[in-house]
């Protein structure tokens, strides 16, 4: 019974706007652009974003790409850290 009430309460939460959800991520260097290519092969996925006249490519797990349902034409953000580039769907 308790798990049902937890599921029910979580599904009644107001939907968080994509931009607001994006702001809760800890990465500070954020570049928003359009996904121009998604290639999934085995355990890894290559995501290419077009940001202005530039392109940013990130290699992430295939599971992460599927979970975020990343598709060509969607808006996404590249989050820069000193050792990696992360992709977040916005």
Distance from first to last alpha carbon: 34 Å
**Silhouette:** globular
Class by alpha and beta content: alpha+beta
CATH class annotation: Mainly Beta
Low-confidence stretches: 1-11
Radius of gyration: 15 Å
Q: Describe the biggest sheet? A: 5 strands, antiparallel
Ordered list of secondary-structure elements with their pairings:
Blueprint: H1 2-11, H2 18-23, E1 29-41, E2 44-51, E3 54-61, H3 62-67, E4 75-80, E5 85-89
Antiparallel strand pairs: 1-2, 1-4, 2-3, 4-5
What does this structure look like?
24% of the residues lie in helices and 44% in strands. By secondary structure, it is α+β, with helices and mostly antiparallel strands.
Sum up the structure in keywords.
single chain; 90 residues; alpha+beta; OB fold (Dihydrolipoamide Acetyltransferase, E2P); five-stranded antiparallel sheet; 5 strands; disordered N terminus
Summary?
The protein has 90 residues and is α+β, with helices and mostly antiparallel strands. Helices cover 24% and strands 44% of the residues. The chain has helices at residues 2-11, 18-23, 62-67, and strands at residues 29-41, 44-51, 54-61, 75-80, 85-89.
């Amino acid at each position: 019974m308790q798990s049902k009430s937890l599921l029910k309460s979580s599904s009644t939460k107001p939907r968080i706007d994509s931009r607001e959800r994006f702001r809760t991520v800890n990465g500070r260097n954020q570049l928003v652009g359009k996904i121009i290519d998604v290639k999934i092969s085995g355990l890894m996925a290559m995501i290419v974003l077009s940001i202005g006249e530039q392109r940013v490519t990130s290699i992430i797990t295939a599971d992460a790409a599927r979970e975020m349902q990343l598709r060509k034409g969607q808006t996404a953000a590249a989050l820069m850290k000193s050792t990696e580039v992360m992709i977040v769907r916005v």
